Amino acid sequence: MTSSNRISFTGQRLLDRRGFLGNSASALGSIAFSSLLANDNLLAATDPIHPLIDPAHPYAPRPPHFSPKAKNVLVIFCAGAVSQLETWDWKPELVKWDDKPLPGGPAVTFQGPAGNLARPQYAFKPRGQTGKMVSEMIPHLAELTDDIAFVHSLTSKTNTHGPAENFLSTGSIFDGFPSIGAWVTYALGSENQDLPAFVSILDPRGIPQASSNNWNPGFLPAEFQGTTLSAKDPVRHLAPPGGVSPAADRAARDLLAQLNEHHLAQHPEDNSLAARIASYELAARMQLSMPALNDLSTESAATLKAYGADDESNPTKAAFARNCILARRLIEKGVRFVQLFNGAYASGGVLNWDGHTKLKEQYDVHAAVLDQPAAALIKDLKQRGLLADTLVVWCTEFGRMPFFQKGAKGRDHNPDGFTCWLNGAGVKPGVSHGATDDLGVKAVENTHSLYDFNATILHLLGLDHTRLSFRHNGFERRLTDVHGHVINEILS
Amino acid sequence: MSCRLAIVAIICLHGVAARAAAPDFVHDIRPLLEKHCYACHAGEQAKSGVRLDLKAGAFKGGDGWGPAIVAGDANESPLVQFARGDDPDLRMPPNDSDLPPLAEHEVAILVAWINAGAIWPDGIDTATVVDKTDHWAFKPVQRPAVPAVHATAWPHNDIDRFILARLEAEGLQPSPPADRRAWLRRATLDLTGLPPTPDEVEHFVTDSSPGAHEDVIKRLLASPHYGERYAQHWLDVVRYADTHGYEVNTERPNAWPYRDYCVAAFNADLPYDQFIREQIAGADQGKEASTGFLVTAAVLLPGQIGKDEASMRAARQDALNDIIVNTSDTVLGLTVGCARCHDHKFDPITARDYYALQAFFAGVDYGERMLMTPESFVLRKEHDAAQTRITEIDRELPRYQPLARAGHTRPAVTPQFNTDRIAPVSARRLRFTIDTNTLEPCLDELEVFDGEGRNVALATAGTKSSSSGNLVTAGRHELEHVNDGQYGNGRSWMAATRHDSWVMLEFPAPVAIERIMWGRDRTGKFKDRTPTAYRIEVSAGTDENDAWTLVADSTDRLPFGTKENDPLAGLSAEDRATVTALEKEKAAAQARVKAATRDMRVFAGSFKEPHPVHLLNRGDAEQRKGQVPPESIATFASVVSPVRLPDDAPEAERRQALAAWLTDPAHPLPARVMVNRIWQWHFGVGLVDTPNDLGRNGSTPSHPELLDWLASEFVASGWSVKQMHRLIMGSATYQQASAGNPAGLEHDAGCRLLWRFPPRRLEAEAIRDTILAVSGRLNLAMGGRGFDLFKSRGGLAGFTPIETFDEAGRRRMIYAHKVRMERDAVFGGFDCPDAGQSTARRRQSTTPLQALNLFNSSFTLEESRAFAARIEAEAGQESAAATDGDSVRWQIDRAFELALSRSPDAVEASAVEAVVGEHGLATLCRVIFNSNEFVFVP
């Protein structure tokens, strides 16, 4: 990207603002316009950028800071901290060191005393053209490695799940900061005006550990909150409860519009009134378009089978597979940011990837849920040509230790070296970037914090993470705080 | 590249001794720095605190690496190390920036310059250092002269003169007064968060007395609902919630007394300085809840913090940070939290100031404390009485246990709980040997009682435990758990072997024992690993040669797993009846103890011996620097008497000293911050629109003189918040109509100059409360434990919303049990704060989900029906509504009056009448609850 490119996009932003303001009441528009220019110093190259939100059309598409590689994002979020050692980060040395103490290793980690090193609990095989070694635990996802850019050297700031999921999703370990989906929709709006711009699909087993922090707007306007739904639980309040006839419902809607218009006519200058009227119109469109999303009867038997949505022997897998189909439909319809959760809350590793005591036994169960449906989803996106515009992110809040916990057959939390990956639009296919040491204790080569990972996601969307900003309580707040560098090595 | 630089470069490349022709700073070095570094390392916001545009900055260095330039030693100078890319990951400029890296010859110039002594002449820097202390809000409040105005008839009070002078200077006119209905609705919603009743409207509209407005303000300020409304504003700022937050989000059951304390404080017009002092230093007996302020934040519970020392230190720092941030944001309007990792980039607050502030709070912990209210004293008596009775019953019950080894059959072992009664025997040691289980056996607690019913096994009684071996899961299965007085698998001992394992207790002195009680898991969750075959032996001495005597074992018990196990096997019918009655009584007493224990406590911080506080490099608890004593922020020393306490100052004294400093009338910030908040709560936006930041990075006030005038008035009034309300609401400014006009919109669309009253949407709580008030179903009971919005009050599995509310659930929303991070399913979407971070000012967003929630929720529909039923019931009693047509019109009128404080106009009436005729009154009520007019402050 050159700086002239940047200026031209700033110019584009300006034009867009003129366009938007030209459509609003002219007097109001010109004042707003001049005060915006004064506040924003649009032409300074390092100043914060606050996207201009038209209150009546908060999800209208907004231009990025520079030419984007990806238009929308699918995040596959594996809650509970997936072990890198059982999945993507092959450590043959660990086989040799199996059941031996880690020389100089910590006596106590997150949950308690450390035991001996433990070999990867699954066999690894070379995959595809790259020959990348990936675990047998996830045979379907493993088939995709030629398209994936792995980052094996990520670090988190905490070894506690909740704060770590906060960090992954919001760039802060604390509660109350905006999630990445909120940031992205705040910046870019959405391509679809009949559906929410940011959708979070919850795992059939329950909510992830940091719960709504993963999709909350924090201090961003509430418009940018993720809407939670799943294949089995549609959006709340889409329709009135029983007892309201369709005719009465329609009459109520019409009367409301009439009364609001009548009121607006007496306060013609008031934007927020017009915005509220518009919000009821958008709600009405959502009411029409949302129910069809959850109707899978239009999917072919072959599709259902490919995703595993017809797997009666494994209802959790089938439910997750239906969520995967829902995710594809949302991406297809231009929803800007889709978060697909795999794994739920703290449960001794029963409902998520938190394998402290019986890792292999539990991962056999979890892998069966994740693997085929998620792989089918990515293949389906690719086959439909959607990966040209869609960035797929696979992530988890931290990794796991190469040793077992004392007296247990599972691994403790490890925030010092773990793997997440990108796939799709703008991503260099088949690369493995960064590395942990030979035993997988910590990242040693091309180390990246999750700030870098999030900066990279924003970059692919055409957003400069150092400038996408919101002023709150005296701070210019950013997803990446004051940190973050784009990981250029994994970009195409 | 300049010609001269090129020549120098060539000289360097050719290896000509750099010393001979040392590069010149102005001609050679500064251009290099400009080109490669200044994008980030110049100006006030220089990254990592490294400024290369100032001599002092370059030689001082930034947050992490010491001086950037070591004169005479290029290899030791971080500037060179970074520019050269000694560590490729740390190369400067960063690889992913647009800035070009330094070419080899450029590095060579830098090296030559530094090795030649890094001569940077004084007085040639083009940049200047900004004096961070030179800022309006850090200067003492000076009561400004009230400005003269042209339109002398308009002002009601001095506030108006400040506003009008500015409007006149800008060529703007104030708006005409709002009509009386609008003003009353505005004032009532503003002060109480509830709408005026039609009677109140009628009374005010017809009250032509000159003091009518003042009378209303007086009435509203005397209403207890005022405190509910303004406490909510305060709780937003301090991010109050009834759960602990983070992933476990457990209930914080006793936080609510702090919420009630705030309601009462506003209602009583507690002087603001006292309000602050009480929240930080503590209040009189009976008001312990005041210090709930210190611990409103989310906090990690012990189980969520890593067992390694570094995790614990980091968690403690985070917990303290939340106290500092809350105090400085809320009281000072200053972002002191920024100085945790480095000196504040904008304000004159150093990292040392931050840790000196932390030292005031070093003895504060997140926890509960006993309340000292009359109610709690009653509870304590109840608690003690119930506890005494439990002890008595516990002493009584064993009498009805069959003796062990007495020739009869005893009940089978149960996983939960077993008693072995024995003939009294003197013991110094007791050994519990477990013969077998298919897994390593587990005991959650081993209790041994003397004749008085005292558990002599407790470690706290001096008894020591040992064992044949332990299978440890730290924090869960440990030897010390066997006699720690705590039950459950999470506090249990697990043997290392499956066979012949034992645990032994050694009492501090010989003791006559007569009962042993034990279980695998008293909470009943775990049933595996139960010691099914066991022996209990005692020994009179502690020598390994002292003999062991068997006192009880499992041989006379029914076999483990016996289907119809009789826990009272071996007892007579009469004894059985007695046991049953006693156990029932005990369960009731335990329930009373549990409830009383909960209700006599408050989550308001617990205080302990302060730990030493150190300055931490980059905020990292593992990088300690020197110890820091409690000390007020240094920069204010010239305006407020500074406070400095010794390192070992007692805990309470620290908070008292800080509270006194924060409420010193000479302090330039607290009064300005609070009057600005009050202004914002009335007008939607403060005179400073960054209410938590009056520092240099905050906004400048729209009316600086007015802010100072209000601040001085506030202090002079004895910090009376209600006096501020009277002043502001009595003003002509507040009384203006909210309608726009072209001149005002053209000049000041944001209405910061207040040429009209700025209209705004009601907050989530006020919408819910107003719906209930209008439907006639609002439960006005004040205070106490919060009602539920969700089916659970805390926990990690998520929160299912309650759809239909009973009477308790129809209380004002401030009394909802506030689950952190989980917004109410209907009203949360109306920008309800999540209590994660401070919400100094609520946003006003407009979302389709708000529309869906308000239009389609069961809450709205049920209240619409209730509203309709209310009107219909009233209509039934109205003689005016004699005929059918009249009745419908009367009902429509009444609906508008109750909900909107006015009658419908002709256009509305005809539109509405048709719909009501066809679909009923409830349909209209649903529409009104959704209408713009209903949810906006006029």
What's the layout of helices and strands?
The complex is a heterodimer of chains A (492) and B (938).
Chain A: H1 3-23, H2 26-40, E1 72-78, H3 92-96, E2 108-109, E3 112-117, E4 124-127, E5 132-135, H4 139-142, E6 148-155, H5 161-170, H6 180-188, E7 198-201, E8 227-229, H7 246-266, H8 271-293, H9 301-307, H10 315-332, E9 337-342, H11 359-383, E10 390-396, E11 399-405, E12 411-414, E13 418-424, E14 431-433, E15 435-436, E16 443-445, E17 448-449, H12 450-460, E18 470-472, E19 475-477
Parallel strand pairs in A: 1-9, 1-10, 6-14, 6-17, 7-8, 7-9
Antiparallel strand pairs in A: 2-3, 3-11, 4-5, 6-13, 10-13, 11-12, 15-16, 18-19
Helix pairs in contact in A: 1-2, 10-11
Chain B: H1 3-13, H2 25-36, H3 55-60, H4 78-84, H5 104-115, H6 158-169, H7 180-192, H8 198-206, H9 212-222, H10 224-237, H11 256-267, H12 272-281, H13 309-332, H14 351-360, E1 364-365, E2 368-370, H15 374-396, E3 418-436, E4 442-443, E5 445-450, E6 464-467, E7 493-494, E8 499-519, E9 533-539, E10 549-553, H16 573-599, E11 601-603, E12 606-607, E13 614-616, E14 624-627, H17 651-662, H18 670-683, H19 704-716, H20 721-729, H21 732-735, H22 742-747, E15 760-761, H23 764-775, H24 848-856, H25 858-877, H26 884-900, H27 906-919, H28 921-930, H29 932-935, E16 936-937
Antiparallel strand pairs in B: 1-12, 2-11, 3-8, 3-9, 4-7, 5-8, 6-8, 9-10, 13-14, 15-16
Helix pairs in contact in B: 1-5, 2-5, 7-9, 9-20, 10-11, 12-17, 15-16, 18-19, 18-20, 23-25, 24-25, 25-26, 25-28, 26-27, 26-28, 27-28
List low-pLDDT spans of chain B. 1-20
How many helical elements of chain B?
29
How many structurally independent domains of chain B?
5
Please, what is the oligomeric state? heterodimer
> Roughly how much helix do the residues of chain B carry, as a percent range?
25-40%
- Strands of chain B, total number: 16
Could you characterize what this model shows?
The complex is a heterodimer of chains A (492) and B (938). Helix content of chain A is 34%, strand content 17%. Chain A has helices at residues 3-23, 26-40, 92-96, 139-142, 161-170, 180-188, 246-266, 271-293, 301-307, 315-332, 359-383, 450-460, and strands at 72-78, 108-109, 112-117, 124-127, 132-135, 148-155, 198-201, 227-229, 337-342, 390-396, 399-405, 411-414, 418-424, 431-433, 435-436, 443-445, 448-449, 470-472, 475-477. The model of chain A is unreliable at 1-43 (pLDDT under 50). In chain A, the strands form five sheets. In chain A, strands 1, 6, 7, 8, 9, 10, 13, 14 and 17 form a nine-stranded mixed beta sheet that branches. In chain A, strands 2-3-11-12 form a four-stranded antiparallel beta sheet, with no helix packed on it. The two termini of chain A are 13 Å apart. Chain A contains twelve helices and 19 strands. Chain A has three domains: 3-40; 72-234 and 296-490, Alkaline Phosphatase, subunit A (3-Layer(aba) Sandwich), CATH 3.40.720; 246-290. Chain A is an alpha/beta fold and 492 residues long. In chain A, strand 4 (124-127) and strand 5 (132-135) form a beta hairpin. Chain B is α+β, with helices and mostly antiparallel strands and 938 residues long. Chain B folds into five domains: 3-115, no CATH class; 133-208 and 669-759, no CATH class; 271-369 and 606-662, no CATH class; 403-570, no CATH class; 859-937. Chain B has 29 helices and 16 strands. In chain B, strands 3, 5, 6, 8, 9 and 10 form a six-stranded antiparallel beta sheet that branches. A two-stranded antiparallel ribbon of chain B has the order 1-12. In chain B, strand 13 (614-616) and strand 14 (624-627) form a beta hairpin. Classes of the chains: A alpha/beta (492), B alpha+beta (938). The interface between A and B is large, with 107 and 108 residues.
